[in-house]
Amino acid sequence: MTTIEPVPVVEQRRSGPSFADRLRGTLPKIVLAPSFAIILVFVYGFILWTVYLSFTRSRILPVYDLVGLDAYYRLWSQPNWYMAMKNLAIFGVLYIGLCIAIGLFIAILMDQRIRAEGVLRPIFLYPMALSFVVTGTAWKWFLNPGLGLEKTMHNLGWESFKFDWLVNTDMAIYTVVIAGVWQASGFVMAMFLAGLRGIDGEIIKAAQIDGAPTVSIYRRIIIPLLRPVFLSAFIVLAHMAIKSYDLVIALTGGGPGNATELPSTFMYSYTFTRSQMAVGSASAVMMLMGITAIIVPYLYSELREKHQ
Amino acid sequence: MSAAQETVSAGSANTARYVIYACLIILALLYLLPLYVMITTSLKSLDEIRAGDMLALPRDPSTAAWVKAWGEACIGVTCGGIKGYFWNSIRMVVPAVVISTLLGALNGYVLTKWRFPGHKLVFGMMLFACFIPFQAVLIPMARVLGTFGLANSTAGLVFVHVVYGLGFTTLFFRNYYEAFPDELVKAAMIDGAGFFRIFWRILLPSSGPIIVVTIIYQFTNIWNDFLFGVSFSSGEASPMTVALNNLVSSSTGVKEYNVDMAAAVFAALPTLFVYVVAGRYFVRGLMAGAVKG
Amino acid sequence: MNIRMISKLAAGAAVIALTAGAVQAQEEVEVLHWWTSGGEAAALNVLKENLQKEGVGWKDMPVAGGSGVQAMTALRARVTSGDPPTAVQMLGFDIKDWAEMGVVGNLDELATQQGWDKVIPAALQEFSKYDGHWIAAPVNVHSTNWLWLNKAALDKAGGKAPENIDELIALLDKFKEQGITPLAHGGQPWQDGTLWESVVLSTGGMDFYKKAVIELDPESLSGDTMRKVFDTMSKLRTYFDPNFSGRDWNLSTALVIEGKAGAQQMGDWSKGEWLRAEKKPGTDFVCIRFPGTQGSVLFNSDQFVMFDIGEEKRDAQLKMASAVEDPAFQIAFNTVKGSVPARTDVPDTEFDDCGKKGMKDLAEAASGGTLAGSLAHGHAQPGAVKEAVFDVVTQHLNGQLTTEQALQRLPEAVAAAQ
What we know:
The complex is a heterotrimer.
Chain A: H1 10-13, H2 26-53, H3 70-76, H4 79-110, H5 117-129, H6 132-143, H7 149-155, H8 172-197, H9 201-209, H10 214-225, H11 227-243, H12 246-251, H13 263-273, H14 277-305
Helix pairs in contact in A: 2-14, 3-14, 4-8, 4-11, 4-13, 5-8, 8-11, 9-10, 11-14, 13-14
Chain B: H1 10-43, H2 46-51, H3 64-71, H4 83-113, H5 119-128, H6 138-148, H7 154-178, H8 182-190, H9 195-203, H10 208-224, H11 227-232, H12 240-249, H13 257-290
Helix pairs in contact in B: 1-13, 3-13, 4-7, 4-10, 5-7, 7-10, 8-9, 10-13, 12-13
Chain C: H1 3-25, E1 28-33, H2 38-53, E2 57-62, H3 69-80, E3 87-91, H4 92-100, H5 108-114, H6 116-119, H7 122-128, E4 129-130, E5 133-134, E6 136-138, E7 140-143, E8 146-150, H8 151-156, H9 165-177, E9 181-183, H10 189-214, H11 218-222, H12 224-237, H13 249-257, E10 261-265, H14 270-276, E11 285-289, E12 297-300, E13 302-306, H15 314-324, H16 327-337, E14 340-341, H17 353-368, E15 371-373, H18 383-397, H19 403-417
Parallel strand pairs in C: 1-2, 1-3, 9-10, 12-15
Antiparallel strand pairs in C: 3-13, 4-5, 6-13, 7-12, 7-14, 8-10, 8-11
Helix pairs in contact in C: 2-16, 10-12, 10-18, 12-19, 18-19
């Protein structure tokens, strides 16, 4: 289900104001109002503006005469856009899948009453603290066949070692995946670790008393209990995958060729460097629709389940 | 509340523990590799970098590159290193983090303890704001900043970061306060405590973990931002990331990898510091609500 | 003399005093540019110092990154917010685009006073003027169809500079035998495009370049000559080292300087890096027109576009424009940067052999009709078309498209971008 539906409020209305009495009722709203107004203008207002621009002929700066679907025709006739979509599919699936798998794996290991947890935790978390503007230089160097890993291996005597993914059009997108997973998997680990720590120990004790082996306790009891964490992790990762920009720019700049173009880099280059702002806006609208398709059903189910 | 397993038999458990530690240590080394490369490279001389391999420890560690990156390296036509930009970033990050965290806390408080019809729609809409691609808002934002006279100023950058951080901070606090017992709030209300008094006296004092999560999250995001920095600031008022990008691209035919890396380490220090110092509270804070499904 | 007149005079004097005061208080120009590499920044520093001598402060706004990509984003934000910088480094068709938006200033008065019309070549005026008004001060004329050779490597390979593509290939083979990288190239779209346009010019001559690149004739873009161009590109690709992807141009130049590579096809800004490394033309390196393009020049011109920034800052802006067109500055800047002066009345005595050759070639090409704008540097087509060509050229060079596919895609991509 991917259509945009408003979160239903009307049915909630009957449950009435919680415990605030009418007199005090306005103050909280006044406190919330500025934030909400800001969001309305700077998020929704700007989204509408972007949608509007996508129906214009804007090139270098915005112009406001409507020309219909022209920008969308242009967008969908760009081979680059198809490449961006294809790459997003590859990148998204691998990035989300690997981050969750590795994050969960490390979290389970970390949850075995590890002695040096205080040392290890920041090691797994720190990549999240660094921007790719910072680590991109190190990564680029590391992946560069003439300077980095390949050369190091050659120096160590492994002459036939070959690692040229960064400059190989078929493999470059996977270097982006590697760097992306390196950055985000520690964060996912922290989410799973928090989830594991939140599980009621009694359930596990009971299973152990029954003599269940550790592996199957995890497989049958603990992992299913982590379902909400999987969902949160998926949402966080999905939106990071769609928004990923620094990552690609720092590593490959979208190349070689257009081998690592993603919708976010596509949008940026069409809006700002190719002077086709309308096409850029159209691609932004597509991205927003993609995000909406993931987020809105999630929000809908989340907000409906609770407090009934 | 730990989910760790009781040992079944001592022998196999020992083997298992060795495997676990081995796995963790190997993974930790892999994760540390880029940082290791950055730091060791920044301590090497250019000749050593060119001749040797990147995994080797520096033969003759020198902080010359650090000194150069901090105070002497050329960015454009000015050669004053990155120190000025470092303070620019601090001046931008601190107010932005404080304001967005405070607003997020108040919003979370209202959305959980002072509910009104439509509060879910309001929350849903604020949450969706987290997901907007920032590239799409640059131009209209520039227009708005210009209208308010905030263009090309630190105040403008603070404003932008507050606006696009609100969704996250509200989410964090809302989920945290959701689990906070309503009874305490009710009791205080019966005692005659008002809206702000309840917030200051009852909710805020017990918000430690989530404040830490929010601050870590906002601090890293704002410190690391490049896109807003490059668009809404200029020249000597630029934040660190913009200067770093300029520095790394300012090569004099000979690319000074050691200076580049030293500058990158400087840019990374504050966020690294925050993560290492506050890391333990991070997981605790996530446990306390941010992750709840 | 009546009272009214006296009061007028007094008011006038007051205004003069006021403006003079303001001028002394703080005159400043804010300059957005992406000249952050060593030779470029050194050249720009000349302008900064000249202005400082006149009491005009320099607020530097460098935005590094691939031929001004980030810089143009920053500029959009600044213009949209109603606070544009004083002057912005810009190329070719970008200038027209911005002029069209009505956000640029007017330099007519200064230009008339200093007689720019007479000393700046018509090919540059095409971009420095919009709708008959001067809006930009051209700094230099670059030309892209150059080949830079390491003299020692060339001598080892026989010492004869190649005069056509076949001789070039033969020379590159010899470099390969020497165990060095034959052709230092950086795999960024604009660099791929720069190489491509030289190959187009060499393969089909200036008439073909004009037909294919300037007029965008679909048949020329997909015909047999273009097939030869793409085949040559594939051939040249085999002479790159494995690390070329994404490498900055100046790092490739450094490879040739250090003797790790034999040659680089690059515009004359490459010379700035050689000079900074204290190398001499003729003894350490050799500059020749890209084989097969002698007699033709593909140019691009860096210009400082003056934005509309209001009256009170205009004085500093005009001073800067005037400083840019100062013949002494033109010499000082261009000898460092590797380009040739934008003014035709500047003597070539201060320039080295490569600079002299550049000035001579430019003058001959301008009078002989073999001067054309560089596509890769925004002087042949608007940004959208340029990038569309880059897409095809880059993908072909990186093996994502076969020559057959490239020939089919090129006219399509160009048409879609128009």
